[in-house]
Amino acid sequence: MGKLRIVVADDHESIRRSLVRFLSHEFEVLDAVEHGIELMGAAISLNPDVIVSDVRMPRLTGPEAMDELNMRGIHIPFVFISSGENVIGPQASFVPKEEILKNLVPAIYRAIS
């Protein structure tokens, strides 16, 4: 089995770039987008194994994008990141931005299992 294929979504360019650098060591990062509408397009066209998304983004939040994809019959595991509290609930994984280095990779593997 090859590397897991990931799409990253975060509205802050510096965080997006850092996530891509960090995740590229272990995963194939297919795309990095800045808002939920772009996330929808990347998810539909690239069919990643996992999506790593900020919770709050312009145009469509991460949870809204996940719900929209699910309504279209596209079920891709999400790992949400945020500097705020976990507002996602049990349907997706959540990692506080302060814990990315320690907990993001394990959360991605948990999301696909």
Uncertain runs: none
Question: What is the overall silhouette?
Answer: globular
Please identify the structural class as seen in this structure. alpha/beta
**Residue share in β-strands:** 15-25%
Number of strands: 5
Side by side, the strands of the main sheet go: 2-1-3-4-5
Commentary on this structure:
- It is built from four helices and five strands; from the N terminus they run E-H-E-H-E-H-E-E-H.
- Strands 2-1-3-4-5 form a five-stranded parallel sheet, sandwiched between helices.
- The chain is α/β, with parallel strands linked by helices.
- Helix 2 (36-46) packs across helix 3 (62-71).
- The chain is globular, with a radius of gyration of 12 Å.
Keywords:
22% strand; single chain; alpha/beta; 40% helix; globular; 113 residues; five-stranded parallel beta sheet
Topology:
Blueprint: E1 5-9, H1 13-23, E2 28-33, H2 36-46, E3 50-54, H3 62-71, E4 78-82, E5 93-96, H4 100-112
Parallel strand pairs: 1-2, 1-3, 3-4, 4-5
Helix pairs in contact: 2-3
Question: What can be said about this structure in brief?
Answer:
The chain is of the alpha/beta class and 113 residues long.
